Amino acid sequence: MVTLDADFHAMLALSGAVRPSVVRVRIEGLQAQMLATLLIKVLEICADDLEKGAMVSVTENGARVRRLPLLG
Question: Which terminal Cβ of the chain has fewer Cβ within 10 Å, N or C?
Answer without folding.
Answer: C
